[in-house]
Fold Very-long-chain (3R)-3-hydroxyacyl-CoA dehydratase.
Amino acid sequence: MAGPSLRPHVHWAQRHRELYLRVELSDVQNPDIAITDNVLHFRAQGHGAKGDNIYEFQIEFLEPVEPKPVCRVTQRQLNITVQKKESNWWERLTKQEKRPLFLAPDFDRWLDESDAEMELKEKEEEKINKMKIESRVPKDPFKHLKKGYLIMYNLVQFLGFSWIFVNMTVRLFILGKDSFYDTFHTIADMMYFCQTLAAMEIMNSLIGLVRSPLIPAVVQIFGRNFILFVVLGSLEEMQSKPVVFFIFYFWSIIELFRYPYYMLSCIGIEWKPLTWLRYTAWIPLYPLGGLAEAVCIVQSIPIFSETGKFSLGLPNPLNVTIQFSFLLQIYLIALFLGVFVNFRHLYKQRKHHLGPKKRKMK
C-alpha cells in the first residue's frame, strides 16, 4: 500500500499582474496542476525533502485568478506562473489569514509594492519606446507583392520538380533500367525550365528579397546549369547515358523539400517534419549528386577531346589550341570545391535550425 502523500516546500512572490510559485521538487514526473474555483491543486511524483514520493498541496488564492496556470519543469524545481484577474497588489497569497507551514516568500524574486510598481512602469516605458522606434521604420509598400512573388516562385519550382520526380519514378517502375537511357529526351524540357527559372534565386539574393547568402546560390545554380546546358545539352552522345537519370533524380529529390519549406516560411508556417527533411536530406543527396555530376564530366571529356567542341584556337604566331576537355578537368576540381562550399553552408544552417535548444515544459 502506498504511503501518504506529502507537501513540498513552496516559495511565492508576486507582481501586480502575476503570481510566481516555486515548488522545491527535483526530477518531477507526471505533474497534475489545475485551478478550479480559485483553488490551485497540485500533485506530482518527485524528489523532495522526504525523498522520492508523491507530493501534493492546495492553495485557495486571496483574490480571483485566471484558471490556466503555466508550468515550467527544470531538473531541480518546478515553477508555476498564475495570472491575476485584476492588476493589483495582494497583502498575502492565500484566502486564509494564517500562512500554511509549507509556504514561504521567495526572496530571490521578492519585491515590495513600490519596487514592483517601478518595475512595471519601466516595462511599460520600454514597450512604448519600442513602439515608437517601430513606428519610425518606414513600411515597405511592396511587402505583400514581394511575399506573393516568392510564394508563387517556390510553388512553381516545387510543381516543376515534383513533375520530374514523379515522371522518373513511374517510368523507373514500368520500364526498369531501360528508363535510364531516355531520361534526357523525356525530362529535359522541364529541367531546362526549372533550372533557367532558378537563376532568379541569384537575383532574389542580390536585391535583398531573401536573406540567403549569394555565393552558395551562385555555386549551385552555375554548376547545375553548366552540366545541363553545356555538357548534356550540347553533346548528343551524353544524353543517352544512365548518369543523366541519377543527376536529374538527385536534383529533384532535394528540391521536393527545399521549395515547400521556403514557400511555407513566406507565410510564417513551420512544419517540423518538413524542416527536419529540408536540413537533413541533403546529407546523403548532395554528395551523391556531386558524384553523379563528376561522373558526367569524366564521361564527357573524351567526347569533347575527339570532337574539339568549344575548344579555342589562338591565332598565329602562337598557333595554340586550348582544349575544352582541359578546362573540364579544371572544372572537375572546382566542382568538388563547390560541393564543399554548399556542404559547409548547409551544415551551418542545419546546426542553426536543428541544433540543441533549451527545452521548456508547460
Observations:
- Confidence is low (pLDDT under 50) at residues 358-362.
- DSSP finds ten helices and ten strands in the chain.
- The beta strands are 10-14, 18-23, 26-36, 39-48, 51-60, 70-73, 78-83, 103-105, 312-313, 321-322.
- The longest helix spans residues 143-175.
